[in-house]
Structures are given as C-alpha cells and as structure tokens.
Amino acid sequence: MSEQVLELVEVDRIHGAGNTAVHALRGLTIRVAAGELVAVMGPSGSGKSTLLNLAGGLDRATAGQVRVAGVELGELAPRDLARLRRRRVGYVFQDFNLIPSLTAAENVALPLELDGVRPRAAREHAVTALSEVGVGELADRLPQDMSGGQQQRVAIARAVVGERSLILADEPTGALDSETGEQVLRLLRERCARGVAALLVTHDAGHAAWADRVVFLRDGAVVDDTGAQAEPESLLGAGA
Ligand SMILES: Nc1ncnc2c1ncn2[C@@H]1O[C@H](COP(=O)(O)OP(=O)(O)OP(=O)(O)O)[C@@H](O)[C@H]1O
What we know:
By secondary structure, this protein is an alpha/beta fold. The protein has one domain (4-97, 160-237): Rossmann fold, CATH 3.40.50.300. It has eight helices and ten strands. It has helices spanning 48-55, 78-88, 104-114, 119-132, 148-160, 178-193, 205-208, 232-237; strands at 4-15, 22-33, 37-41, 63-68, 71-72, 89-93, 166-170, 197-201, 213-218, 221-227. Strand 1 and strand 2 form a beta hairpin. Helix 3 (104-114) packs across helix 4 (119-132). It starts with a strand and ends with a helix. Bound molecules: adenosine-5'-triphosphate (ATP). Residues 15-16, 22, 24, 42, 44-50 line the site of adenosine-5'-triphosphate. Residues 6-238 form the ABC transporter domain. It comes from Nocardioides marinquilinus.
C-alpha cells in the first residue's frame, strides 16, 4: 500500500461555542496517498475550506487527528508546525496569490529562502520547477506581465518546489478559461505521477473527473467517496 501523505481521522471542527457554535466538520475521515489526486466537492458551507485549512495546518481540529507525512499536527508546537507547513505543504489558490513585486523565479524561490536555502541554490531550484511546469522562460518576468494560465503555472511551481509532498488546491482553475483550466489539472496530475499527493476543491464535475477519487461533503461529513468517472490516464493522453 502507498504511503499516506495526508490523513484526517474522525475530525471535528466546531467554530465558536454555545448557541452560536457551528459544526463545520463532523467525524470526517479522509486519506490521500502519495501519487493520489483526490477531489473534494460539496455545496457551499459543507466544510471544504475548513478541511483544506486543517490539512494545511492553518487551523486546528476540535477533535480527531490530522497527520501530514505521518506527523500529527495537533502535537506540534507552533514553530514546528510552521516549519512543516513551509517544507511539506504547497497551496494553489483561485487568484494565484503571487507577490506582484517579485519575478516568477523570486516568487518560487521565496519559500525556500524563508527556509534557509541560499539565494543562488533557491533560484536554481525555482528555475527547475518553473521549467517542469512549462514556464522556465518566464523566470524573470513579473506576474503582471503574464497570462492567468502562466501565473497559475508559477503558483504550481511554488507549491511543489523543494521537498513538498502535499498540494492543497482551492478552486485553482476558477479564474481560468476551460482550456487553460484543463492544462492546470493536467499539470497537477503530472505532479501526482511523480509522487505528490493532492487535494483539489472544485465545484466542476468535469474537473473532478481528473481525480483518482471524488469525496462529497455535506454538512461537514463525507456522504460519498468514489472513483472518478474517467480514467486519468486517458485524460492525460487526450491532447497532452
Ligand atoms: N471562522 C468561522 N467562524 C464561524 N463559522 C465558520 C468559520 N469558518 C467557517 N464557518 C462555518 O463553517 C461551515 C463550513 O464552512 P466552509 O467555509 O468550510 O464551507 P465551504 O464548503 O468551503 O463553503 P464555500 O463553498 O462557500 O467556500 C459554514 O457553516 C461556515 O459558515
């Protein structure tokens, strides 16, 4: 069996207390193995963002366990949690979240430099990561001089650079036209083929079809956990 990169076991997250308490997640169990792309779908308010925040260590569970690469996040001191987040977890958001005043290579190198990697080595890793997602030639360009699809590729390079083993993607194709959106999904699949685990929140069933499994949430609980309709390999082959 493959290595589990992300495990949430019987997780509850209650926001607030008393009469105003909101049970955002209840008894939620999800596992994502190395190499797996898992899509999360569900209506607004079903707990998708709460799930991503817990998986990325940005929020803490009220009950249950959250493990990344075998490490129980609830047991880490804030400083160790911050380090694990920086080293192991990459985020991709709908609005790219690149720093406007930094070039593509500087954006991708930043998490490495924050982690103590020397600037020259960080830049080399960044340029390699950019090349792997097909935008190596844009290394010295600012975000404002790139298309949305190019910016999202840079964001993916930033999410996977270094030793990151988990990508958390929140509607990463939302701001892109459908063709560019599919390229981004193909890229995520390619990263998974290299052993990264990815959790993809999407409202689009066509995009969820790129995943190995689709998890449906309702009222903070998993109501269905199923294989996607299409074979990812056949999608990869189409137009790749
Ligand atoms: N900080 C908070 N304080 C109080 N309630 C919260 C907080 N964050 C989320 N909630 C509530 O928890 C529930 C789950 O919210 P969450 O944002 O995780 O859902 P979602 O599925 O991501 O929704 P959407 O698709 O609209 O982004 C909702 O009822 C929401 O109002």
